[in-house]
Amino acid sequence: MYLSQATNRAKASADTLCTQVRIYEVGPSGQTQGKTMYPHEGPVLDLCWNGRDGTKLFSVGADKAARMFDMSTGQSTQVGAHEAPIKCARWIDAPTGGILATGSWDKTVKARLLPLRVPKRLLAYILNFRFATVLGFEEPQSCIHSSDA
Question: For a disulfide at 6, which of 11, 109, 127, 143, Cβ 3.0-4.6 Å?
Fold first, then answer.
């Protein structure tokens, strides 16, 4: 299986049999030029960009690691882990940062607050936004749907 995620100026791809994530620059007419790549220690299973600016790429895989690639520094760092391969990753924008949610074959979903920047000393923080979650499981037609309306 081939994975691909794109922003308006960059595209990332990974073959699920491969342990490398490749990042390409996308030109005005759609042509691509390879820019960089970074490794996982096992096959890559999912990719997602951070929200509006697309400056960070998240990848997860069979190595049980969630990695973040920073486009401005060219550095890859591990930002999370599970006890079994991580199957999916999704980015949720928040007012001062964001949340990386990962789902694993260890039957857990983990959410991580990633860089939250505040202008002054923090006394309280309330994160309140609307979202819907659908979790699909191995058994046919088995899912949990949660919506905060």
Answer: 11
**Rounded Cα distance, 105 and 83, in Å:** 8
Q: Are 55 and 70 in contact (CB under 8 A)?
A: yes
- Please give the model's pTM, rounded to 2 decimal places: 0.74
Contact 4, 12 (CB under 8 A): yes
**What is 2-115's CATH number?**
2.130.10.10
Neighbours of 35 (CB within 10 A): 14
Cβ pair 65, 86 in contact under 8 A:
yes
**Coil, helix or strand for 115?**
coil
User: In 3D, which of 7, 1, 65 has the Cα closest to residue 38?
Assistant: 65
The values of phi and psi at residue 125, to 5°, are: -145, 125
Residue positions counted in the chain: 149
